[in-house]
Amino acid sequence: xxxxxxxxxxxxxxxxxxxxxxxxxxxxxxxxxxxxxxxxxxxxxxxxxxxxxxxxxxxxxxxxxxxxxxxxxxxxxxxxxxxxxxxxxxxxxxxxxxxxxxxxxxxxxxxxxxxxxxxxxxxxxxxxxxxxxxxxxxxxxxxxxxxxxxxxxxxxxxxxxxxxxxxxxxxxxxxxxxxxxxxxxxxxxxxxxxxxxxxxxxxxxxxxxxxxxxxxxxxxxxxxxxxxxxxxxxxxxxxxxxxxxxxxxxxxxxxxxxxxxxxxxxxxxxxxxxxxxxxxxxxxxxxxxxxxxxxxxxxxxxxxxxxxxxxxxxxxxxxxxxxxxxxxxxxxxxxxxxxxxxxxxxxxxxxxxxxxxxxxxxxxxxxxxxxxxxxxxxxxxxxxxxxxxxxxxxxxxxxxxxxxxxxxxxxxxxxxxxxxxxxxxxxxxxxxxxxxxxxxxxxxxxxxxxxxxxxxxxxxxxxxxxxxxxxxxxxxxxxxxxxxxxxxxxxxxxxxxxxxxxxxxxxxxxxxxxxxxxxxxxxxxxxxxxxxxxxxxxxxxxxxxxxxxxxxxxxxxxxxxxxxxxxxxxxxxxxxxxxxxxxxxxxxxxxxxxxxxxxxxxxxxxxxxxxxxxxxxxxxxxxxxxxxxxxxxxxxxxxxxxxxxxxxxxxxxxxxxxxxxxxxxxxxxxxxxxxxxxxxxxxxxxxxxxxxxxxxxxxxxxxxxxxxxxxxxxxxxxxxxxxxxxxxxxxxxxxxxxxxxxxxxxxxxxxxxxxxxxxxxxxxxxxxxxxxxxxxxxxxxxxxxxxxxxxxxxxxxxxxxxxxxxxxxxxxxxxxxxxxxxxxxxxxxxxxxxxxxxxxxxxxxxxxxxxxxxxxxxxxxxxxxxxxxxxxxxxxxxxxxxxxxxxxxxxxxxxxxxxxxxxxxxxxxxxxxxxxxxxxxxxxxxxxxxxxxxxxxxxxxxxxxxxxxxxxxxxxxxxxxxxxxxxxxxxxxxxxxxx
Amino acid sequence: xxxxxxxxxxxxxxxxxxxxxxxxxxxxxxxxxxxxxxxxxxxxxxxxxxxxxxxxxxxxxxxxxxxxxxxxxxxxxxxxxxxxxxxxxxxxxxxxxxxxxxxxxxxxxxxxxxxxxxxxxxxxxxxxxxxxxxxxxxxxxxxxxxxxxxxxxxxxxxxxxxxxxxxxxxxxxxxxxxxxxxxx
Amino acid sequence: xxxxxxxxxxxxxxxxxxxxxxxxxxxxxxxxxxxxxxxxxxxxxxxxxxxxxxxxxxxxxxxxxxxxxxxxxxxxxxxxxxxxxxxxxxxxx
Lengths: 979, 184, 93
Known about the structure:
The structure holds three protein chains of three kinds. By secondary structure, chain A is an alpha+beta fold. Helix content of chain A is 21%, strand content 27%. Chain A folds into seven domains: 1-151, Roll (Ubiquitin-like (UB roll)); 159-286 and 406-466, FAD/NAD(P)-binding domain, CATH 3.50.50; 289-318 and 327-402, FAD/NAD(P)-binding domain, CATH 3.50.50.60; 488-560, BFD-like [2Fe-2S]-binding domain (Arc Repressor Mutant, subunit A, Orthogonal Bundle); 597-646 and 741-836, Probable tRNA modification gtpase trme, domain 1 (Gyrase A, domain 2, 2-Layer Sandwich), CATH 3.30.1360; 649-737, CATH 3.30.70.1400; 879-965, Aminomethyltransferase beta-barrel domains (Elongation Factor Tu (Ef-tu), domain 3), CATH 2.40.30. Chain A is built from 22 helices and 50 strands. In chain A, the strands form 13 sheets. In chain A, strands 8, 9, 12, 13, 14, 15 and 28 form a seven-stranded mixed sheet that branches. Chain A has a six-stranded mixed sheet with strand order 41-42-43-40-34-44. A six-stranded antiparallel beta barrel of chain A has the order 45-48-47-46-49-50. In chain A, strand 8, helix 5 and strand 9 form a beta-alpha-beta unit. Chain C has a single domain (2-26, 36-92), classed as Folate-binding fold. The N and C termini of chain C lie far apart (37 Å). In chain C, 31% of the residues are buried. Chains in contact: A-B, A-C, B-C.
């Protein structure tokens, strides 16, 4: 292992790790990439399409090549950039996208077949026959071309989210970000400073330049210490701000535990939603390369990355020979100088510019071009062309610098359009990006250390002024001024393939082909060649590709334009976006007040929206759900049953105009309801269709309690608030939901009264004193306050008894205990459903949003005497004339089943859309009838009682003869209700 | 007849308590709750009714703002009784609705002052903590569940959640506390 | 997005549900079917300033009239819908 001197690694500790099973060591402070390079590992993966050997290109999040599968087992994470993976002891990584060993990938044959795999190849070749695409072509292509594989195991780690609110969010903690943070922090602003790196300092850590005549790390340390001491500054390292959203909201992922072997009790990552009044984007810049023939060989790197590896990680890029630099700017020379200072031999600096001077004791080839490379699995030599002819240089590594692209991404979210700066040969943040975001430093084109330090301060001053804060003076550290002097040399012309986008294997030739095929607009170029569509989003490729296309079309780069920038800046795991909990706790559950009791009684629960309701109660010996449900139904119809109906929405309506208000919200009249009585209510949508139904109980002149269906509790309440606040704000009405406050238990069956008499405290339950549809406050069980409603969903003599929720569990147990001799039986939602079908009561399956009151046979309930939501529209032609009616169906052969969803046809008619007569909405086995029964909407159904029709279910090849009957299978006269 | 034995929202006969690091979370079943809404044209009753976004303690009760012209009145120790007859004489011109069992009250106590409460809030709710100092009260959402948050003091936070979702809310809150403790 | 609640200040849009065009406040009185059909079905869909109804469902349950630029999402104002509706009624009366 070869290390240079210096660097920000802790040599006192060694970390052991494996790559493709081979054991290596590194140090704290290393990334996987720097440690691999320090161990002389150059070949780290195979390319996406051609399976070309690839090495590390960059030193940051822009890395296009060095994608590895990190960790093992369920924690294995494919497509992790080795440049972003912090080294820890025991880390294991595997290379991707090869069959056989990395050094002899069988699929490298694709490279020989490259003429077939040029841009657009798939589009043209695999179009025919169509059926082959899904079954044959796509799976094969996906196997051959690709990235790492998922573990296909459940993610064992936890993720969470967090919310930060600040005055100023600073994105990036390099030179500009740090001066911005210091300025704003000292001014007392609430600052969040986020950086994707695990150390603050950004590019300063990669450079040898002094700040205030001392290593930059000293200045960084002093700034960090001051910021950490400020209570108003929050520092988030390992945090990538990945997107800018409306009104100053930013998304960020903090990699809380990715640098640890396992998270332990920590979450792995946190998704931060940051609401910032202002933001400073100090995201730095990304170096671009210069495409030339076979420029993708391991050992060819970005020159700036090479410098970072030497300065920050004490890693020499090439151990197999001297280093050459290919540049079109002064920054490339800087790498040569820094490498030489570390004792790395420099073969030459090939400077594409005609005029170039050495900045130190190395050879400069001015006006030179690198025209090719050699070396099977890593660079061995480069071909150089210059005014004196061509020569071959034996090198171990080549650093390439084509200038720097400001990281304008976040400034270009919200369709902000970057603007071309011809002097800097770079896109700078333009207009139309996220409001309140100020770019500073290298991402604003102020890339030299001197400029970046000053620009960060300037941006913070501007932001503080917007916030009404005064910025204190800031003494900027002294730094060495530098210039880039980049020349517009974008690629080296040649016949061989020169890579532009390494990760998606897009070459200059592919761009030329796109041009030839008239895929010239950038958005077409992108999709036709897949340029910039890999996981790195073309950070090192896009601008170069635009320049190549501009050259081909003869247009300027700004005329060629950029594609639209969208979040995320770098990949974000779905786990962290999902955040929160998994499994049972994935979403909140609502439990009924009798849940504890029901669980102990062997209830099987069913999810009804967020609610967990008892579906049926299994008794010993019952092996099939229908046994339980049939028993429960029969017990109610013959004795008395108990069901928790708390989930129905309850809304307390008070005020002098409560009756008038309900008259307008319900289709039928409510103001005329007598105190102490309940009325069934129909609620329409304004378009005249049925919305919801429920009961209105009038507790006092100015006090009603209304119920909604379980599913619509929230929407109906919102709708009533809309009516109160927006439609009739002049009415004296007060609304509040009380769904959870009261446990409500249905007590149903011929013995319901007998049972209730045993719990009420001296309350007269006789039919005369408390008739059908009566309601009253009372006390039960020796003083527990309660409300009693004589309403029935089952069709039996029935009541609903409400007590404060905390007593619900005990009340249920008490009713069961006291009703033992009456056969008191708990029933669940299945039995509830069977009985409401037997009684012909509409529920969710009938209230589809396309149903009218007439269809339910309730057209007369829509009062013509008053205005109510939906009343006028319900009478319009088409809707009012709908002749489908709710009917009951029984199969002619009692052994046959009525299937919900089946469509209805006149007997003997050929089933078709034209002959369709309606459909079955609900069906169940009725223990009362002794066969399957159904509810249906049938054309002129009310006139067709007794007719035999066909219920067809073509999906299951069923066709059942059914007889049309009244929807009220049980007690059509309603005698039982009133008993 | 015997009285019915009430259950706490978390399903047991006694309230739950959870400790993790600096935080203690306690189920508080004894506080009564009433919604108070001004009727049309009514004057504000002589109760301590705070402005929007605030919470205020009065004699034997506390109140927090829940909407225009609407407050929730907390009545410590009065959860078992009908709170309306108690409150009605003090609230002429108001519509009162019993809310005690519509909600579950959890109190979060920090042994490390404001810092632990704020670190908790940071991962729980999307609120600007500048507006969550002592005396503040607001409705918000924790893990998709609507809650009222009352900052009783620097080191104490009250959380009123839907009673039916008490178990899920408790799980969410204790998970937050565990994770906070892991972060250290 | 952040909604500038007139009583509570900036609140995250996640606390709100959206209904649509604020003209829903202007419900026609009486039984004119054509007017109601217009009210129920016809909406303007402006590119630019749009007055729309938001419900602070996970907040104070106020309905708000929010004036938002549909092109930029800039929010120009937010008022209590009840105040808007009352002002309309007074204007009509």
